[in-house]
Design a protein that fits this description.
0% strand, single chain, mainly alpha, 434 Repressor (Amino-terminal Domain)
C-alpha cells in the first residue's frame, strides 16, 4: 500500500515532526490545496497528525475510542464531520471557510 506521506530524506517521515499547531495546520492546508475534493486525503492527513501527536491522548481528548480513530482516520476511512471537527479541535487547529470564486453579487 503506497503512502502519500511526505519524506524528509531517506526513510524519514516528515509527519513525525508535526508537533505544533502551525505545522499541523500547514500540513492540512497543503493536503486541501492538493486535493480539495478528496475527503480521504483529509482523513489520512488527520490520521498522520494524530499518530504523530499520539493516538491514545487524542482519543482521551475527543472522547472517541483509539480503534475508532484509527479506522476513521485511515486512508479508507470515512469520518463524520463531527469526528473531523472533534479531532481538529483536540489538535488545536480549526476549519475555516473562504470564498472559492470571488464575490458574487
Amino acid at each position: 500500500m503506497a503512502s502519500k506521506r511526505r519524506k524528509d530524506g531517506p526513510g524519514r517521515d516528515a509527519t513525525a515532526n508535526l508537533k505544533s499547531e502551525a505545522e499541523m495546520a500547514a500540513y492540512i492546508a497543503a493536503c486541501l490545496e492538493e486535493a480539495p475534493d478528496d475527503p480521504a486525503l483529509l482523513a489520512a492527513a488527520l490520521g498522520d497528525i494524530a499518530r504523530a501527536r499520539g493516538m491514545v491522548q487524542l482519543a482521551k481528548e475527543t472522547g472517541l475510542t483509539r480503534e475508532g480513530l484509527y479506522k476513521a482516520l485511515s486512508k479508507d476511512g470515512n469520518p463524520s464531520l463531527g469526528t473531523v471537527l472533534k479531532v481538529m479541535h483536540a489538535l488545536g487547529v480549526k476549519l475555516t471557510a473562504t470564498a472559492a470564486w470571488g464575490s458574487r453579487h
